[in-house]
Design brief:
- The complex is a heterodimer.
- Chain A is an all-alpha fold.
- Chain A is 93% helix and 0% strand.
- Chain A has two helices and no strands.
- Chain A has helices at residues 4-40, 42-69.
- Chain A is rod-shaped, with a radius of gyration of 30 Å.
- Chain A starts with a helix and ends with a helix.
- By secondary structure, chain B is mainly α.
- Chain B contains 28 helices and no strands.
- Chain B has helices at 34-77, 79-96, 103-136, 141-154, 158-163, 170-179, 194-218, 224-238, 244-249, 253-265, 270-276, 282-287, 326-338, 349-355, 370-378, 382-385, 389-405, 409-431, 436-451, 458-478, 483-488, 494-524, 528-551, 558-568, 572-589, 603-613, 623-632, 635-656.
- In chain B, helix 18 (409-431) packs across helix 25 (572-589) and helix 23 (528-551) crosses helix 28.
- The longest helix of chain B has 44 residues, at 34-77.
- Chain B starts with 33 loop residues before the first helix and ends in a 15-residue tail after the last helix.
- The A-B interface holds A 3, 5-6, 8-9, 12-13, 15-16, 19-20, 22-23, 26-27, 29-30, 33-34, 36-37, 39-44, 46-48, 50-51, 54, 58, 60-61, 64-65, 68 and B 39, 42-43, 45-46, 49-50, 52-53, 56-57, 59-60, 63-64, 67-68, 71-72, 74-75, 78, 81-82, 84-86, 88-89, 92, 95, 100, 102-103, 312, 314-318.
Chain lengths: 70, 671
C-alpha cells in the first residue's frame, strides 16, 4: 500500500517549489524596479555632484577674494 | 507591522551523521515501538515541509504586498526630487556652459551612428563622382577643403555640440569622410589622430590657391552641389575670416541639416558665437568629446582686454560686470543699443539669461520641438523657409534652363512690358524714402499686382520677380541703417540724387523701351533669365559689398563696388532694370560698347551716373558678364540658391540682432 505520508510530503514539496519560483519572480521584478529608480535618480546624483562642486568653487572664490574685499 | 520581530539566529547546519544509531530526532519518543517511531518521524517531516512551505509563502507575500509597493511609492515620491535635480543640472550646465551627458543621452548617442551612416551614404553617393574627378586632377579639392573647414567649425559650435555630445557627430564624421575620401577612402576618419587631420587640412589649404584657376576653367561638374560649392569657394577662400552670412550660403545636403538644426537650437546668438569660435583650434574639441568645454578664449569671465593665459581663475562674483558671461552681456548690449527697449535692470538678469541661452546649453524644458516653429515665425521665413532650399534651387535651375532653351522671342515683348512696369514701381519706391520694412511689403504687393498682367510663362516670371523682390528686400533690409540717415543730410545725399536721376532715366526708358523693344528683343533677347541674372548679379554684389563692410575681406572684385556701395545700394532696384535695358541699347546702337556711355538713348542718365561714379561697372557686374554667366550654365542655379540662402541667413541675423543690425559684429567678439 502507498505510504500516505509520502503522498502528503510530495504535495507539500510541490507547493514549496511553486512558492520558490514565485518568490524568484518577485525578486526579479523588485530588482528591475530598483534599477529603474536608480537610473531615474541619476540626475539627482548629477545635481548633487554639481552642487557640491559649485559649493567648493564658491568657497574657493570667497577665500580668494577675501583679501581684496576690505 | 510597526515593530518587526527579531530575526532568530539560524540553527546549526545539519550534518549527516556517520553512525545511524546516534541520530537524535527531536521530539521523538524513543521508548515507543519502531513502527510508532517511523510514523512519528514521517509526521515530523511533513510538519517541517509545511513550515518550509509556509515560510516561502510568507516571503512571497511580503515581496508582493509590501516591498514592491514600497519601491513604487518611493519612485513616485522621488519624482519631484528628480525634477528639481533636472532643473539644477541644467542650471549648472548653463552657468558653466558645458553639457553633462545624462543617462538619456546614451540612448540618443546610439542613434547618432545611424544618422551618420545615412549621411555618409549620401556623401559617398555624391562623393563617388567626386573621387573620380579628384583623383584625375585637383579641381575638386577646394570644395572639399572648404567644406571641411566649415564643417569643423560648425560642428564645434556649442549649439551643435549640445545636440550631440559625442565625438562622432554626424557632420564631423561625414565631413571628414568626404574631405578625405580622395586620399584615405576606406580609412575611417575617427581612426586618425586629430593632429594628422589638422596637418592634412593645412596641406590642402596650401594647395587651395593653385587649384582655384583650374576650378573656374575646367570644372566639369554640372550637379547642383558642386556648382554651389565651387562658386562659394571662390568667394570664400579669398577671405579667410568669413562673415557668418557666407556660411549659410554654401550648404550641401548634409551640411544643410546641421545648419538648420543649429539655427533651431540656438537661433538667438549662434551666428555670433560661430564667429567667436573661429580662432579656436579644433584640436581641443576633438580631444574632449563628451563635454565640449569652451576654449579659454571664450571664457565668459575673462574681461575683454584680459589675457587668457594670465587669468587666475578667480572671479569676484560681487562685481556686477562679471555677473553674466561676457558673451551674453555683449549680445544684450547690442540689443539694447539697436532696439528701443531700454536696458533691463539688474534684477532682470536671471530671466534674461534664461531667455538668451548660451548656445551650448539646451535645458530640457526649453529645448523642445516647439522651438522650431517659433524661430521660423520669428525669422520671418514663412515664405522661403517652408520649401526646402535645395528643392527650390533645383526648381529654379530647371525653369531657367527651360527658358534659356526655349526660344527667346517668346518672352521678349512681355519682358519689355515687365521691365517698364518694374521700373515704374522702383522709381516710385525710391523717390519716397520709406522705411525698409514698409518698402519691402509694398514692393511685394506691386509685384503681385503685375502678376496678373502676364499671361505667358507665368511660373518663371513670377518666380523671377519673386526672387528679384527678395533681392531688393534683402538689400533694403540690410542697408536699412544707411539710407535713412543719409536722407536727412543736406549734403550730397544719395536718395535725392537717386530720385532725380531716376526721374530722368525713367522718362528716357519709358520712351526708349517702348520703341526699342520691338526691334532688339528678337536679337538681344533679354529674357526673364536675363532680367533676373542682371538684377540678381547686381544685387548680389551689393550684398557682398555690404557684408564686407563689416569684414573688410570679402572678395576682391567687390572692392570697387564696395567703395560705391553706400551710394549705389538704394538705387539698385533701378539699376537692375537699367542693366537689363542696357543690353537692348547695346544691341541697338553699338555692339562693342560698354553700355551706358555709348547708348544715345541712355546717354543723359548714363552720363550722369558715370560722372558720379566714374566706374563702368556702376551697377555691379557689367551686363555682359552677367549674361555670360547665364549662358555658362553653371551659374544658373547659383543665383537662385544664393538668393534663397542669403535670405535665410539674413533672417537669422536679423532675428539675432533685433532686426536692425546688418550682421553680428564678429570682429569685436573674439577678444
Amino acid at each position: 500500500m502507498e505510504n500516505p505520508h509520502a503522498e502528503r510530503q510530495a504535495v507539500l514539496l510541490e507547493r514549496i517549489v511553486k512558492n520558490t519560483s514565485k518568490c524568484t519572480e518577485m525578486i526579479l521584478e523588485l530588482n528591475h524596479c530598483l534599477e529603474e529608480v536608480l537610473r531615474a535618480n541619476a540626475s539627482v546624483k548629477t545635481a548633487a555632484d554639481l552642487a557640491t562642486k559649485y559649493r567648493k568653487n564658491v568657497q574657493y572664490n570667497l577665500e580668494a577674494t577675501k583679501g581684496k574685499d576690505s | 507591522m510597526s515593530e518587526q520581530k527579531p530575526i532568530p539566529p539560524n540553527p546549526n547546519r545539519w550534518k549527516p551523521n556517520l553512525n545511524p544509531a546516534n541520530i537524535v530526532v527531536p521530539g521523538l519518543d524513543t521508548e515507543a515501538s519502531t513502527s510508532d517511531q517511523i510514523e512519528q518521524i514521517e509526521q515530523l517531516i511533513t510538519i517541517k515541509l509545511q513550515n518550509i512551505d509556509e515560510n516561502f509563502s510568507k516571503i512571497h507575500n511580503v515581496l508582493a504586498n509590501k516591498l514592491l509597493p514600497a519601491v513604487k511609492r518611493y519612485s513616485v515620491g522621488t519624482e519631484p526630487v528628480r525634477e528639481a535635480a533636472k532643473f539644477w543640472t541644467s542650471f549648472y550646465e548653463q552657468a558653466a556652459q558645458i553639457r553633462i551627458p545624462t543617462f538619456d543621452d546614451y540612448s540618443t548617442v546610439n542613434d547618432v551612428p545611424s544618422e551618420r551612416d545615412e549621411n555618409t551614404m549620401s556623401e559617398e553617393h555624391q562623393g563617388s563622382a567626386v573621387e573620380v574627378e579628384a583623383s584625375a586632377d585637383h579641381t575638386q579639392r577646394p570644395d572639399d577643403i572648404y567644406e571641411t573647414t566649415v564643417n569643423s567649425e560648425t560642428s564645434f559650435l556649442p549649439g551643435h555640440g549640445a545636440f550631440s555630445s559625442t565625438p562622432a557627430t554626424a557632420a564631423r564624421i561625414a565631413s571628414t569622410n568626404q574631405s578625405y575620401s580622395s586620399q584615405v577612402s576606406d580609412d575611417p576618419s575617427w581612426a586618425q589622430s586629430p593632429l594628422v587631420k589638422l596637418s592634412q587640412e593645412l596641406k590642402h589649404f596650401s594647395l587651395q590657391p593653385e587649384a582655384q584657376p583650374q576650378n573656374s576653367s575646367s570644372s566639369t561638374f554640372d550637379s547642383i552641389l558642386e556648382d554651389s560649392s565651387t562658386d562659394s569657394t571662390e568667394d570664400e577662400t579669398v577671405s579667410i575670416p568669413r562673415s557668418a552670412k557666407g556660411k549659410a550660403k554654401e550648404t550641401p545636403q548634409p551640411l544643410l541639416k546641421n545648419v538648420l538644426r543649429h539655427n533651431l537650437y540656438s537661433a538667438s546668438d549662434s551666428s555670433t558665437f560661430e564667429n567667436n569660435l573661429k580662432q579656436i583650434s579644433p584640436l581641443k574639441f576633438k580631444a574632449k568629446p563628451k563635454t565640449p568645454l569652451l576654449d579659454k578664449k571664450s571664457n565668459p569671465y575673462l574681461p575683454p582686454s584680459g589675457d587668457s593665459s594670465s587669468w587666475s581663475g578667480v572671479v569676484d562674483l560681487r562685481d556686477r560686470s562679471v555677473l553674466t558671461p561676457q558673451r551674453q552681456r555683449q549680445g544684450r548690449g547690442d540689443a539694447n543699443k539697436s532696439s528701443t527697449t531700454p536696458g533691463a535692470p539688474l534684477g532682470d538678469d536671471d530671466d534674461d539669461s534664461f531667455e538668451a541661452l548660451p548656445p551650448g546649453m539646451s535645458p530640457p524644458v526649453l529645448m523642445s520641438p516647439v522651438r522650431p516653429a517659433r524661430s521660423s515665425t520669428e525669422l520671418g521665413l514663412h515664405r522661403l523657409g517652408q520649401t526646402p532650399i535645395r528643392e527650390a534651387s533645383e526648381r529654379i535651375q530647371r525653369d531657367l534652363i527651360k527658358s534659356a532653351l526655349k526660344s527667346v522671342h517668346k518672352s521678349g515683348l512681355k519682358n519689355a512690358k515687365l521691365s517698364q512696369r518694374q521700373q515704374v514701381v522702383d522709381s516710385s519706391m525710391s523717390t519716397v524714402p520709406t522705411p525698409p520694412s514698409l518698402s519691402r511689403y509694398t514692393r511685394r504687393h506691386d509685384f503681385s499686382t503685375t502678376d496678373s498682367s502676364i499671361d505667358k510663362d507665368p511660373s518663371l516670371e513670377s518666380m523671377i520677380r519673386h526672387l528679384s523682390a527678395d533681392i531688393k528686400g534683402n538689400k533694403y533690409r540690410r542697408t536699412s541703417t544707411k539710407p535713412i540717415p543719409k536722407a536727412t543730410n543736406a549734403g550730397p545725399s544719395i536718395p535725392s540724387y537717386m530720385s532725380s536721376n531716376q526721374h530722368l532715366q525713367q522718362s528716357d526708358f519709358s520712351i526708349d523701351s517702348d520703341s526699342d523693344s520691338m526691334e532688339f528683343n528678337d536679337t538681344a533677347n533679354p529674357s526673364a533669365a536675363f532680367l533676373m541674372a542682371s538684377g540678381g548679379a547686381a544685387a548680389y554684389m551689393d550684398d557682398d559689398s555690404f557684408g564686407s563692410s563689416n569684414n573688410s575681406s570679402d572678395s576682391l572684385e567687390n572692392d570697387g563696388v564696395g567703395a560705391l556701395g553706400d551710394g549705389i545700394v538704394p538705387v539698385h532696384p533701378f539699376a537692375a532694370n537699367v542693366a537689363v535695358l542696357d543690353d537692348g541699347f547695346d544691341d541697338e546702337d553699338d555692339d562693342s560698347s560698354d553700355g551706358f556711355e555709348v547708348g544715345p538713348a541712355g546717354g543723359l542718365a548714363g552720363g550722369q551716373v558715370v560722372d558720379d561714379f566714374e566706374d563702368e561697372t556702376v551697377f555691379g557686374v557689367g551686363p555682359r558678364q552677367s549674361v555670360a554667366g547665364v549662358y555658362d550654365g553653371r551659374n544658373l542655379r547659383m543665383l537662385g540658391e544664393d538668393l534663397l540662402e542669403d535670405t535665410i541667413g539674413i533672417g537669422a541675423h536679423m532675428a539675432a540682432t533685433g532686426r536692425v543690425e546688418e550682421s553680428p559684429t564678429p570682429a569685436n567678439w573674439g577678444r
